Amino acid sequence: MSFQDVDIVLSAWIPPVQGVEQSTMKSVLVAIARHTNSKNEDHKAWPSLDTLEVETQHGRAAISRAIDGLQKVGAFLSYMPGGGRQYSTYVLEPVSYMPQQEV
Question: How many other C-beta atoms are found inside a 10 Å radius of the C-beta of residue 28?
Answer without folding.
Answer: 28
